[in-house]
Amino acid sequence: MAKTDPYAALRFKEFNIFLLVRFALVFGWSMQFLVIEWQVYDLTNSKLSLALIGACEFLPAFFLAPFAGHIVDKKEKRSLFTLCIALFSLISFGLFWLTSDQIENNWSTNSILIGIYSLVFFGGVLRAFFGPTIFSLIALIVPKSAYPNAATWSSSTWKGASVFGALCSGFLIAWIGVHYTLGIIFGLVMLALILVFQISKKPVLNKATNESIKESLKSGIDFVFNDKVILGALTLDMVAVLFGGAVAIFAVFAKDVLDAGPRGFGILNASLSSGSILAMVATTYIPITKNTGKKLLIAVFGFGLFMILFGASKLLWLSVIALFFSGVFDGVSMVVRQTILQLKTPDHMRGRVGAVNSMFVGSSNELGAVESGVAARIFGAPLAVMLGGSVTLLTVLVINYKNKPLRELDLQEDVEEKFDELKS
């Protein structure tokens, strides 16, 4: 048996560069979204305007994802990634320019808002391409034997950058203002653009040049829905986020349930995120390829169980513990899911499978926020979270009973075979 190497993927120079690029992009993107939300709300004082921002990014990202997956499979991945970053830099610069004193003094509020919404919509178009491009590029940077470790480091980088970006955005707005914060974001994107050229161009593995767009899209969707392992893993993640998540109503718990105020709101968010990040780092030392399916089912079940405890809690310290362990299980499930997708997706279909994955994950995040708000309005926040956690548990039990291929999935042999091939 091959010995687990927690730094297997990091031994490849291009993967380290990829992580730096991804951190800069995700850190900048997460800051940019929150900064723009702040700016738009400051200009309009309307909650509906915030919903419009989310819609402008979500709609093109969701509906263009299948087409983006087709393009990604047909094109050279490094060049496409570079193009996406270059276009993202134009968005960042455009937002930086729209928040300058010159524009604010000479343009009407409506004109500025139209400019912001247009750039956010353009960002949603790019988001449709980023997901499948990154998913495909990882598989071309490291050998298959290092896929599980690469998935762990990539997911940890994404989560850490998201959390760090969210934390820094508020401090930077207060310290240097919206305009200069967006300037820093533009600088981060330009840094990513410079670094990405340190990654060499990769071969195009999809040789089906005569395949029509319709046939290509259909084959990608059919593959996901006919593969019980991949479909089961995506379904678990979607249901957990759609029904089990409660991030969108943390403010309600902090203010009305736990009487913890703004500080408690920050603590609740930090508890969930810190649990996820620590779990992801831990999985670099703990092998997840043995009994992979069972580990995924246990992780999602544990997430739902602790979210029920969070919903039932009336004490801040108990809520913090519940969210921390929810984050731990969520972090494990995220890494396991990414590992399954990397190892079980054929090279020539990575773009399309990555696109479907983006649709599952992306839609569940946005729709989950809507579901949480509506359920909290109807049932009250505590009962809404407990019901969502119960739906998550029920889904795990049904998939465990109905989906034997996922339940019995073990990726150890896949990894060991590739490890032996690499040594020989």
UniProtKB/TrEMBL annotation:
<keyword id="KW-1133">Transmembrane helix</keyword>
<feature type="transmembrane region" description="Helical">
    <location>
        <begin position="80"/>
        <end position="100"/>
    </location>
</feature>
<feature type="transmembrane region" description="Helical">
    <location>
        <begin position="374"/>
        <end position="399"/>
    </location>
</feature>
<feature type="transmembrane region" description="Helical">
    <location>
        <begin position="298"/>
        <end position="325"/>
    </location>
</feature>
<keyword id="KW-0472">Membrane</keyword>
<keyword id="KW-0812">Transmembrane</keyword>
<feature type="transmembrane region" description="Helical">
    <location>
        <begin position="184"/>
        <end position="200"/>
    </location>
</feature>
<feature type="transmembrane region" description="Helical">
    <location>
        <begin position="161"/>
        <end position="178"/>
    </location>
</feature>
<keyword id="KW-1003">Cell membrane</keyword>
<protein>
    <submittedName>
        <fullName>MFS transporter</fullName>
    </submittedName>
</protein>
<feature type="transmembrane region" description="Helical">
    <location>
        <begin position="265"/>
        <end position="286"/>
    </location>
</feature>
<dbReference type="InterPro" id="IPR036259">
    <property type="entry name" value="MFS_trans_sf"/>
</dbReference>
<dbReference type="InterPro" id="IPR010290">
    <property type="entry name" value="TM_effector"/>
</dbReference>
<feature type="transmembrane region" description="Helical">
    <location>
        <begin position="15"/>
        <end position="36"/>
    </location>
</feature>
<dbReference type="Pfam" id="PF05977">
    <property type="entry name" value="MFS_3"/>
</dbReference>
<keyword id="KW-0813">Transport</keyword>
<feature type="transmembrane region" description="Helical">
    <location>
        <begin position="48"/>
        <end position="68"/>
    </location>
</feature>
<feature type="transmembrane region" description="Helical">
    <location>
        <begin position="229"/>
        <end position="253"/>
    </location>
</feature>
<feature type="transmembrane region" description="Helical">
    <location>
        <begin position="112"/>
        <end position="140"/>
    </location>
</feature>
